[in-house]
């Protein structure tokens, strides 16, 4: 009788330990999913803020370019009137820490002192829109689609307009060159790009 009772108690303890382990595994998995969701949400919000900031910078750049152009009509050749970069306060002040935190990795790597040129602003604006578009293809896996942004840019697709010019054959060829190998990613990207070409 004693042996049977001991076996039962050992088996019940074992069952209890297994259920505790299963509960713990579920808690860890839920915590991991929540962390992943928060990271994706933070990345998405960061890219949205960057796009808004880029829009504002582009508008300021256009306004300053208009202000500088009339002052150059005098025909004077002094250095101050020909160098609008010196008049731009953004060129002479250091970047704020909050601005640096808002930048993407690509923008941080491209900081070489020439980031205040109009072309740079326009391309970063278009790059921000491209990244936002990639993130919105699948909200649950936005980081996976954002990882293709650099590949799109290296293949010459710097804006959504560039992608909208592709026909069906070009889309398949471009996705192959970019390196989209996952079937689901390829199908969703193909569908989204073809939708761009039909948007007026």
UniProtKB/TrEMBL annotation:
Q: Which residues form the SAM domain?
A: 125-199
What protein name applies here?
A: SAM domain-containing protein
Q: Determine the domain of life of the protein's source.
A: Eukaryota
Q: Which residues cross the membrane?
A: none
Disordered: region residues: 40-91
From start to end residue, where is composition biased (Acidic residues)? 75-90
In this chain, composition skew of type Basic and acidic residues spans 40-58
Q: Which SUPFAM superfamilies match?
A: SAM/Pointed domain (SSF47769)
Per its UniProt record, what InterPro entries does this chain match?
SAM, SAM/pointed_sf
Top-level taxonomy: Eukaryota, Sar, Stramenopiles, Oomycota, Saprolegniomycetes
> Which species is listed as the source?
Aphanomyces astaci
